[in-house]
Amino acid sequence: MRRRDLADLLLLAALWGASFLFMRVAAPQFGAFPLMSLRTGIGAAVLLPFVLRGDGAAELRANARRIAWIGLVNSALPFVMFGYAMQYLSAGFTSILNATTPFWGAIFAYLWLGERLGRLRVAGLAIGFGGVLVLVWGRDGIGGNGSLLPILATLVATASYGFAAVATKKQLGAVGARTGAAGSQLFAALMLLPFAIATWPATPPDRWAWLSAVLIGVLCTGLAYVLFFRLIARVGSSRAIAVTFLIPVFGMLWGAVFLGEAITGSMLAGAATILFGTALTTGLLDPRRWRGGRRADAGPAGKPRART
Q1: Does residue 307 fall inside a structural domain?
Q2: How many CB atoms are located within 10 Å of the residue 291 CB?
Q3: Which of 22, 55, 153, 173 could make a disulfide contact with 212, Cβ separation 3.0–4.6 Å?
């Protein structure tokens, strides 16, 4: 991986890690639907110009129904789940749970596409979900003080991401990645708009909440997708998925630096276990995928599987 690609990878991880910081600031004031309607609307506004310059408009119209479906499962549903969860959970904690996305992707690929789950991948799934237990075990509120539902909402969000990865591969395989990304944000924004209007906060959010909402739309949605697709095109989807391992690092870092969140031993242990399971599940630790000193699958671009 060249220096420019490594820089893109680090910047992408920093942006997606920062999304948890921005959600933690904005979600309690906006609420889930208004914040995520803003996020998807701003993200669409950033991405659509890249699509409309060429043949993307015709492609978007021709595949509108399928792109709208992906917008629901890849953006609208998981974003709202995160918007709810981030009113109660810390940025660092939630960013670690986000790393379970590849596990769900592997499960849905097995159930829907019939992809084989070898021993290493099954072991990775078991280890990864064991890491979730390490992360949440003994957490304050898990017994009924308020943490259980937000944690479950986060896992619903990552399961939706995993399902969306498989659905994108099956239904949007011939659609350009940028068209799919921009269109899905546009349709997600339209889906969320009525709920956002109905639940708009009576107390106006402060300037920090507004700034966070704008930044999560411009940087963590619009710019991040542009970076991710550029990275996929240059190094392949298998290497681009390495961003999954860096997002919790930045999520915990930004939460600690800007919000004063504590980084606990259980968080570090849970993160290490989940990420080890992710490495097994995605095949990064499979020796059969290394041939002659380079990755055997470092080929053409694919669809994203880790995001936030």
Answers
A1: no
A2: 10
A3: 22
